[in-house]
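User: Some background: our group keeps a shared notebook of sequences we're curious about, and every so often someone picks one and asks for a predicted structure to add to the entry. Today it's my turn. The entry only has the sequence so far, pasted here. Could you supply the structure so I can complete it?
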Amino acid sequence: MVRILTPRAELQEVMQDIHCIKEKTVDFAEGKKRVVIKAKQMDAEVTGIMAVSGLVHMIWGNLSAARVREILDTMAEKGFYNFLSEGFAVVDSPAEIAALNGRPYFLAQKRDFRLGVGMQGGMSGNLFSLANRCEDEDDFFLIEDDEED
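Assistant: Of course. Here's the predicted structure to add to the notebook entry:
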């Protein structure tokens, strides 16, 4: 378990998973999509952290791999991390991330179990909406099953 003081001044206990993520904006003829995947290893392409606390998924993004490693090292050593005075922009939707121009951000959204899924699918209005539903979405969250098909 890790305790986290979020940029919203909320103390969260993360008792489930903490993952490194990689995020990238990809240009297509139809427009831009922000793609986010769980990192399989810690490398130079890692740009953020995703944590699960109960029904809430939290993402800290637009970070350098060195900064991610520093945060994870502190969490592992102390069991606590204070994001409150770190200068993260607090966003309510993935659609707001592009306007930050690379500034570190914090996004927390509740999982939507009414759809019968957790962390899957498009990320426009809800980070955790129905799997593979990416039409008219600004963002797309790939899960490992998507990559292997």
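Suggested note for the entry: Confidence is low (pLDDT under 50) at residues 114-126, 128-137, 144-149. The longest helix spans residues 65-78.
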